[in-house]
Give the backbone structure.
Amino acid sequence: MDKRIKVLVAKPGLDGHDRGAKVVARALRDAGFEVVYTGLRQTPEQIAEAAMQEDVDVVAMSLLSGAHPHLFPKVVELVRGKGMKDALIIGGGVIPETDIPALKEAGVSEVFTPGTPTTKVVDYIKANVK
Amino acid sequence: MENIAEEVLKGNRFALSKAITAIENEYDNATEIMQKLYPHTGHAYVLGVTGPPGAGKSTLTDKLAKEYRKRGKTVGIIAIDPTSPFSGGAILGDRIRMNELTLDPGVFIRSMGTRGSLGGLSHKTADAVKAMDAFGVDVIFVETVGVGQSEVDIVKAADTTMVVLIPGMGDDIQAIKAGILEIGDIFTINKADHDGADKLATELNMMLDLDGETKDWRPPILKAIANQNIGIKEVVDTFHKHHDHIEGNGQLTVRRTERAKNEMLDLLDARIGAYVRHNIVDNGKLDEYVQDIKARKTDPYTVVNSVLQDMLK
Ligand code: B12
Ligand SMILES: Nc1nc2c(ncn2[C@@H]2O[C@H](COP(=O)(O)OP(=O)(O)OP(=O)(O)O)[C@@H](O)[C@H]2O)c(=O)[nH]1
Ligand SMILES: [Mg+2]
């Protein structure tokens, strides 16, 4: 067995802020994960299809533009629709605290806001990946 | 998912994905999956895309795949990126250049880390190629990691190998001669919008002239500007030409026979190695051996001889 945790770091929508996504991607790599990064401006359909082709354990979305209330739930729906029942779906970026309960309700397991140490993200994934 | 192999053969994309995961992570069901898929392999044509880091391998692969799609072919892509030797992690970034292919139902892309393999591929690339082949794609691209000189495993995996070079490396070309220049069936000078493409072509030509007489296929040198979709049709036409050439002269059969042989021997080595290792780890003997070797009471050669003799009794 040579199992490694595989993560898709995805930037849905038109948001061009990619620093956070890159910081998180690098931190996950340094934690020994395999990180697929697909770059900016992905549609939810592209994210779900890439997640399926890569058979990732985690779909990690980064969004700073404010479009998360629409895009995050859409990605969750499409990923589940591909038959990926076990994939952990998380998000991060500039997301007001007040929005978080609704995102969780929609199936985003956890949300990480600015200032989160990347070690916290790593620990969360290790503890929750199936 | 149950019946992964059967589902792959039915054309289930998620099953193909699961099969490759099982292969890559060496899950218990991997061997059984491969046993069931193997009879259905041998139909896809495998194209290797190799060259130095940043040469435009992924961008070219994206455009070439689209050209094959226009010609009615389905495409699989396996894109390899380096695994960090320190953390064991990897950033797999080749898909960034291939996003327009993601939603094409006639294309399937999978990224893989090298996971310690040094030849520019991963140890499981060959089996991932077979899974895609059995799934039924017509053409499979294998993009290697960015290579220097010695990462030439791609020739063992591909039917036709394309080496991608870029202008500006002209002065270094002597240095890489020993390595990747010997494996190209086709050379593509990408980024021909940069100065020096002609100079590089001239130097390449001179070097190929040196050993050209002994071969019946003179590797063509093409130019491309991948990000502008220039020179792409010519590359695909040349892939076809090379395919026809090696099919006509029997080389394709020779290459595939050689591949089957190498793969069987590699599998045998890996299995025997794993079996023997497990044995001496499980029975606790390994530490004993190492202590004795360190104390110079015995030596590794003698120990290995006796371990093998015991086990093969
Ligand atoms: C740098 C920056 C830019 C740079 C971006 C450079 C780049 N390539 O990324 C530039 C100057 C280009 C820029 C442009 C704009 N920006 Co700006 N920008 C910022 C700024 C100051 C910092 C963002 C940043 O890089 N932080 C550093 C990284 C490391 O942190 P992070 O992304 O938050 O990531 C951390 C966590 O959030 C979390 N995380 C993030 N993603 C993920 C994903 C997962 C899966 C996980 C687990 C964790 C995680 O982990 C990271 C580490 O802790 C923020 C303000 C702020 N303080 O956040 C505004 C901000 C994001 N920008 C904003 C705006 C409005 C814009 C513009 C529209 C401005 C304009 N009018 O032109 C443009 C739009 C650009 C575009 N195309 O989308 C607003 C967004 C408002 C909103 N959400 O409602 C902000 C919040 C500023 C503000 N207060 O108004 N911006
Ligand atoms: N000017 C120019 N840039 C190009 C051309 N082809 C690709 N690029 C750019 O070169 C950069 C690297 O391209 P990739 O396709 O990622 O190169 P690669 O060989 O796959 O890189 P690695 O996989 O990291 O080794 C990207 O920014 C491309 O847009 C070209 O013909 N001309
Ligand atoms: Mg690449």
